[in-house]
Amino acid sequence: MTQPNTTSVLYNAECPVCNFEISHYAIYAAENDLPIRFDDLNSDALAQWNLTADQAARRLYVVHNGALASGIPAFIILWHQMPRYAWLARLVSLPVINKIAVLTYDKALAPLIYRWHLRRKSSQL
Questions:
Q1: What Cα–Cα distance (Å) separates residue 107 from each residue in 6, 34, 42?
Q2: Helix runs in 32-105, H state only
Q3: CA nearest 36: which of 2, 59, 71?
Q4: DSSP labels for 2-50?
Q5: What is the pLDDT of residues 32-59, one digit of tens each?
Q6: Which residues contact 114 (CB under 8 A, 6 or more apart)?
Q7: How far is CA 79 from CA 106, 116, 120, 122, in A?
Q8: Can you tell me the distance from the alpha carbon of 49 to that of 42, in angstroms, rounded to the nearest whole number?
Q9: Is the pTM above the cut of 0.90?
């Protein structure tokens, strides 16, 4: 999927929240020639991830040096790869902040964004 020392990000480009945030990171990575690839789960790239579209829509996924991470750990990996956001990775890695971030993402943000995604998809039918 990725070469050593590279990072790949799987996100939902059809989700306005996801697309806004990840597009920002993609522009930053391109401007700084960072070895980060951004894959839209709604493209052929999904087949390389060994995930279903539904799994991929539920949270952010990152592969770095061959290891798959999701949720807050995935964000931390991504932020570590971008000098501008390395401070955020260090901050969110602190034990108390990490626990709060993981709980907030896993129990509130990711499920809310996923339900919004399902509503958008059902209204398009």
A1: 29, 31, 24
A2: 53-58, 72-80, 86-93, 95-104
A3: 2
A4: --TT-EEEEE-TTSHHHHHHHHHHHHHHHHTT-SEEEEETTSGGGGGGT
A5: 999 999 999 999 999 999 999 999 999 9
A6: 57, 58, 59
A7: 18, 25, 29, 33
A8: 12
A9: yes
